[in-house]
Design a protein that fits this description.
Number of helices of chain A: 11
Strand order of the largest sheet of chain B: 6-7-8-3-9-10
Shape of chain B: globular
Distance between the termini of chain B: 38 Å
Largest sheet of chain A: none
Shape of chain A: elongated
Order of helices and strands of chain A: HHHHHHHHHHH
Strand content of chain A: under 5%
Helix content of chain A: over 70%
Number of strands of chain A: 0
Helix content of chain B: 25-40%
Radius of gyration of chain A: 22 Å
Oligomer: heterodimer
Structural class of chain A: mainly alpha
Structural class of chain B: alpha/beta
Number of helices of chain B: 21
């Protein structure tokens, strides 16, 4: 673990990304303490500029506190990003592992199914799913999961294809090991690094998709989110710039931070690729 | 020293910080005269390839660089010349042949246009002349039908043909020095013999000096005029080929030469009556599959194993020898049921293993175990050594305590420290990993051990140790062994009987001594004739 941190910290921007990400997590976790009121509630005079009337980052047309929205929105974004990614990785690993390991007909069938999902533009597909399932936090997680797992499946399949013919896997066959054990205990640990890297980047994508859905009004109406804030302030961009700008910056910084961490993980977990410069 | 073409003096090459040693090459001094062949011999990691690269200015700078010393090439110091001058020298005055011809040639360019490039950069010739010259060169290296090969892509040629094309390119501008970095290591023994002959023929015609880098003393004996032996980046001994090979002075050279397996087969042992394994008319084909929707032509069918009948008796070692593509590894994998064969029988006692399904096969797995070729790929990098060895018995129903105790005992048997138990495979060297692989195979107390080229990835001194270990274990556990190898020297020292394979068929079987003394099949004779260093062997054994 120490060794891993040493390699990770060699990439300065990854450490910066990690610190920003921790800050976002911190804000999300204390949101309910610093802003105990519902972020949808009217907190004061509408359209207050940042710093006016006790609003740190201003208020929107209905008098909702932008800062409170950002703090509570952080919770939503991180939670959705994390859960959707875990679900997508889970499904992707199962599909990819079975396809790569068994090959032949199994591979053909599973990969054709994967391709069906990949041919539909992912954001349009996500909109479609949320629209059908009625906007709620569950349907958003489902939609993001459905559009993100094929990438994981492709990656894991490639890794399994390469590893299943390695001699250590053949040695397991000669010992009479079962397929399930070979897949879970022998091959999977050897492809964890790329899975972790792609997973970390998927969290960022998931946050973007969630914001996009909320911006279009397909977010969960009872849960504050950055995308919702931008969507609500969009018409007043010229008269009240702060309503859109601060949630936008929050999305930008969070996604950037996660990408930096992802790249740092990639460098630390795949040491062979590190020598590129 | 004016008659020398190349004089390297006091050369140091530094490695990046945190490497195994500070200097890849230390205080190296050798020289090369026109028309001479100097062999640099050493085991992996001795710095011999980096020396060659330093001459061509091809070190992976800035991590690895020449820190001291002079490479004097006809009065110019190659460590100091400009990049521009170095480019002129490369190809036209010093050229290089690499180990792996498939990766050294550009796969998307025809052989002709790759030769053409050399002339375009270095010589002033018309397109017509260049093409003509390319064809001549290909004819010079005895490629069949040079007019056709000039417009062929590298993948359309065989390994030996590719290496010939590489040599044609290297000699295109009649360089003064040809550097050959293990040019025959990736080739079969019969092709190797042809390429070695080609290099010495070309050398005689062009008066080229050859710097030949190799790990194989047989090759050295065949082609070298002078030899430099390297260890840990230092030259430990230089001298004429006769002096170094037959009267080595440095203890390292002596040890290396002593570990080269002799071509004289070891004395025969009494043969048991007890047959432990036999195959009858075993067949295996690859290909012939169709696409998912059943469209299109079926793939080409390859007969990898064709009507193979062998028998293995108790306590005996049967060697399966042959060149790459002869089907020997496929045969081993069919026998151990890693591959399903098409027809025939694999009998242990009265049971035909071929017809067993996976569940039925499981109890038989303990009887027949395998040692793999590549010590780096055959151990799971994420699992500790102790667990790797203990896995087998646990799967076969032993308790964890029992299995781990057995694993510790086996580590001792294969000559490793018990502390290895809790370490990961990457902490071990190639030879040690191969010992772990052997321990894993022995954990189930097998009766039959299938060893697929178990020593071909190892240096010659390690190879000798592993062969000795296999011998001891066979005695101790009364194992019968199926030993797959392409190296007839190894086969002579390990095997009681040999089966020679070609194109999936066994062309000859018999006791090792008989086959070496009086080969019956013409292919066996070719194989034996191609083993490098035979004259040297004869000298040392008389």
């Amino acid at each position: 673990m120490n060794d891993f941190w040493k390699r990770f910290s060699r990439n300065r921007s990854a450490v910066l990304g990690f610190m920003i990400l921790m800050l976002v997590v911190f804000i999300a976790s204390i949101a309910s303490f610093i802003y105990p009121d519902d972020p949808f509630s009217l907190a004061g005079k509408p359209m207050s500029e940042p710093g006016q009337n006790g609003f740190l980052l201003g208020s929107d047309s209905l008098g909702r506190d932008v800062a409170s929205g950002i703090a509570h929105g952080a919770k939503t974004s991180l939670l959705i990003g994390l859960i959707a990614t875990l679900a997508a990785v889970f499904i992707g690993v199962i599909f990819g592992a079975l396809a790569g390991y068994y090959g032949g007909r199994t591979d053909n069938i599973l990969m054709r199914i994967t391709e069906v999902f990949q041919t539909i533009p992912s954001f349009v597909f996500a909109i479609l799913l949320v629209a059908i399932l009625k906007p709620s936090i569950n349907s958003i997680v489902i939609a993001i999961t459905v559009v993100s797992w094929p990438g994981v499946a492709r990656l894991v399949r490639g890794e399994f294809l390469a590893l299943k013919n390695r001699e250590f896997v053949q040695a397991c066959h000669t010992l009479g090991m079962s397929d399930r054990r070979i897949m879970l205990a022998e091959i999977l640990p050897n492809c964890l690094s790329p899975i972790i890297v792609i997973g970390s980047l998927m969290v960022a994508t998931a946050i973007l998709i969630e914001s996009g859905l909320a911006f279009l009004g397909l977010g969960d109406p009872n849960i504050m989110s950055w995308g919702f804030q931008i969507g609500a302030g969009r018409t007043m961009l010229r008269s009240a710039w702060w309503i859109c700008t601060f949630p936008g910056i929050a999305i930008l910084i969070t996604v950037l931070a996660i990408n930096l961490v992802g790249e740092g993980l990639n460098d630390a977990l795949n040491p062979r690729l590190r020598e590129r410069n | 020293m004016t008659d020398k073409l190349l004089t390297i003096s006091n050369l140091d090459i530094t490695l990046p910080e945190g490497s195994e040693r500070a200097l890849a090459v230390e205080n190296l001094s050798v020289d090369l005269a026109p028309g001479e062949t100097l062999c640099i011999v050493g085991e992996s990691g001795s710095g011999k390839s980096l020396t060659a690269r330093a001459l061509m200015g091809l070190l992976p700078a800035p991590h690895v660089r020449v820190s001291q010393g002079v490479i004097d090439f006809c009065g110019e110091d190659l460590t100091k010349v400009t990049e521009r001058r170095l480019r002129e020298i490369r190809g036209s005055e010093i050229s290089m042949v690499f180990q792996e011809p498939m990766t050294a040639l550009n796969p998307v360019m025809t052989v002709g246009s790759q030769i053409d490039e050399i002339f375009r950069f270095h010589a002033d010739m018309s397109a017509q002349q260049r093409r003509q010259r390319a064809i001549e060169l290909l004819a010079d290296v005895q490629l069949p039908d040079p007019k056709q090969i000039v417009s062929a892509y590298p993948h359309e040629l065989s390994g030996g043909q590719r290496q010939r094309a590489m040599i044609a390119m290297a000699l295109a501008l009649e360089p003064k020095i040809l550097i050959a970095d293990e040019p025959t290591t990736a080739l079969d023994v019969t092709t190797q013999a042809q390429i070695l002959k080609l290099i010495s023929d070309m050398q005689a015609v062009h008066k080229t000096a050859v710097l030949f880098i190799t790990h194989d003393f047989g090759v050295v004996a065949d082609i070298a005029d002078r030899v430099a032996v390297m260890q840990y980046g230092r030259v430990v001994e230089t001298g004429s080929v006769d002096k170094v090979l037959n009267h080595p002075e440095h203890p390292y050279t002596q040890a290396l030469i002593a570990s080269v397996p002799s071509l004289t087969p070891r004395p025969p042992r009494a043969r048991s009556e007890d047959i432990v394994l036999e195959t009858k008319d075993l067949q295996k084909t690859f290909g012939g599959g169709k696409s998912f929707f059943g469209f299109g032509q079926p793939n080409r069918i390859v007969h990898a194993v064709k009507d193979v009948t062998v028998e293995l008796r108790r306590g005996e070692t049967l060697g399966i020898v042959g060149e790459s593509g002869s089907g020997k590894s496929t045969l081993a994998r069919c026998i151990i049921r890693l591959l399903d064969s098409d027809s025939g029988k694999i009998m242990i006692g009265n049971v035909d293993l071929r017809t067993l399904n996976r569940a039925e096969m499981r109890p038989w797995r303990a009887k027949i175990q395998m040692v793999f070729q590549d010590p780096f790929a055959s151990l799971n990098p994420r699992i500790k050594v102790g667990q790797i060895i203990a896995q087998g018995p646990i799967i076969q129903g032993a308790s964890r305590e029992e299995a781990e105790a057995r694993a510790r005992e086996l580590l001792g048997i294969v000559g490793l420290d018990e502390r290895a138990f809790n370490r990961f495979p990457h902490e071990f060297s190639g030879g040690q990993r191969q010992r772990i692989g052997i321990a894993r195979a022995l954990a189930l107390n097998p009766e039959i051990l299938v060893a697929d080229e178990p020593v071909s990835a190892l240096d010659v001194s390690i190879q000798a140790q592993i062969l000795k270990l296999l011998d001891e274990i066979r005695e101790r556990m009364n194992l019968s062994m199926l030993f797959i190898t392409h190296d007839l020297r190894v086969a002579a020292q390990v095997c009681d009987r040999l089966a020679v394979m070609r194109y999936g068929e066994i062309v000859e079987t018999g006791a090792t001594g008989e086959i070496f003394d009086a080969p019956q099949h013409s292919y066996t004779r070719d194989l034996l004739a191609a083993v490098p260093g035979q004259n040297w062997d004869r000298q040392t054994n008389v």
